[in-house]
Amino acid sequence: MEITNVLQHINIMFISLVFGAAAAFIFDLGRFFIKLLNFGSIGESIFELIFWALAALTVFNIYLTNFWGEIRLYNLAIIFLGFYLYKAIFSKKIINILVFIKSTIIQVLNVCLYPFLWLKQK
Questions:
Q1: Of the residues 39, 45, 93, 94, which has the fewest C-beta atoms closer than 10 A?
Q2: pTM of the entire structure?
Q3: For the chain, domain boundaries
Q4: What is the pLDDT of residues 94-111, one digit of tens each?
Q5: CA distance 91 to 24
Q6: What is the spatial distance between Cα 34 and Cα 68, in angstroms, rounded to a whole number?
Q7: Helix, strand, or coil here: 53?
Q8: In whole angstroms, what is the distance from residue 22 CA to residue 116 CA?
Q9: Going by C-beta distance under 8 Å and a sequence separation of 6 or more, which residues neighbour residue 102?
Q10: How far apart are CA 48 and CA 23, in angstroms?
Q11: How sure is the predictor about 1, in pLDDT bands with cuts at 50, 70 and 90?
């Protein structure tokens, strides 16, 4: 096995790890907006089904176009590791940031719209 071949596999592993973390981030964003828009459990289930189908197609496309179609078990394990590490380390922090941003936007809108609401009452 050549050094360049080993480096290519390390590169593939790194890309797989990043893809898993990015997929988890997009999953968190999607679930946040699904809950924000109050689509309920059916909407959440449909989102998850579409998300996982698109994630699988994306993984297949990435490996087919960039890595000669070689999908190995360790590649899939690294993707799941990236997903898990993101969920374990960053997910709650990102959700808290999104909730803070949402509440800040609501407060700013309330302050900006208060004069108009006051005029409407008169």
A1: 93
A2: 0.83
A3: 3-89, 91-122
A4: 999 999 999 999 999 989
A5: 8
A6: 36
A7: helix
A8: 41
A9: 36
A10: 12
A11: low
Residue 7 is encoded by which pair of tokens?
């480096």
Query: What tokens appear for 13 in the block?
Result: 């592993």
Burial of 21 (0-12, 13-18, 19+ CB in 10 A): buried
- Distance set, CA 79 to CA 36, 60, 103, 109 (Å): 28, 12, 33, 40
What crossing angle do the helices spanning 3-36 and 91-121 adopt, rounded to 10°? 30
Whole-angstrom distance, CA of residue 75 vs CA of residue 66: 13
Two tokens at 101?
A: 């941003």
Q: Which two tokens stand for residue 54?
A: 């698109």
Token pair recorded at residue 33: 């907006």
At 108 the pLDDT is: 93
DSSP at 33: H
- Both tokens of 62, joined, read 């990435």
